[in-house]
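Now read the record:
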Amino acid sequence: MPFADSQLLVSTGEDQTVRLWHLQSGRNLKTLRGYTGGVHSLSLSSDDQILASSGQNEMIQVWHLQPDGNPSSYHPYKTFPSPTRRMSSFSNVSFSPDNQTLAINRHDESIALWNVQTGHLDRWSAHNGAVWTVLFSPTGQILASSSYDCTVRLWDVQTHHCLHVLHGHQNGIPAIAFDPGGQVLASGSFDRTICLWDVQTGAYLYVLQGHIGTIFALAFDKSGHQLVSGSQDHTVRLWDVQTGACLYVLQGHTGAVWTVAISPNGRFLASGGDDQTIRLWDLQTGHCLHILDEHSGWVRSVIFSSNGQILFSGSDDRTIKLWDVQTGCCIETGATRKREIGV
């Protein structure tokens, strides 16, 4: 993930580290150590000052990211035992918009809210199956959780009261996304469908059908009018949220699509998958502009810089690559001793 000035990149690896990179030079500024197992998840506060990370050693660490002119000033200022008895391979942490609270999914059927300043923890039983992911709404008032129990649940953050149980999928749900206004929630499932929901009422709006594989990734554009999905069926689809129509089926990947991202200006779409390639698409026409094929492992994560000029990617080949969006050229490669994923 990038910082607001697009000069820093944060990455995680299974070599027990969190690393900070300088985008222009590709130089590793600082390696944040403290784990005895792989790092599964990162969440960056909206002011770009705090990074939270979770890992296999059942610890969650909070890193202060304000430098005082020396890269070595980056340091963990809080380390907490995980509120879970066991962190799962898909465990994640998610900051609230006010940067005070971390939402954490559990390997069992519960979720937790953790005040990073005080260490106060609230947790409760949430589902009838393992929780896949948790995500705050843009306002921070609602928390969404998805599970193997085939439901999405919407929670009042203050009271932990379940506002709505969203029934509609026939299998587990690995992907959820709020639209920018927090009015619509999209959920993608192993049942090969995407459901759209009214967040306020919990009403089922409609289903988006067309994929013939699990939906692993979802992303709204900044207007909230379009939704992009990436699937195990090797395709990326662009949907009109208002009508439910599939605008484009983007074909070209030869493996599952694990990650999708839309540029801040809404012009470009990036997708990455287990065919070891990244594809840059014109979001208006659906044409593939560039095929970025310098990775030698599955591409797990792609994200645009805040100015939309740089795309960075994380792969199972243990590298982070920086790409010029206009030309499709690789600018820099940051190598690590073990694979770097979850960029």
Notes: The two ends are 5 Å apart (CA to CA).
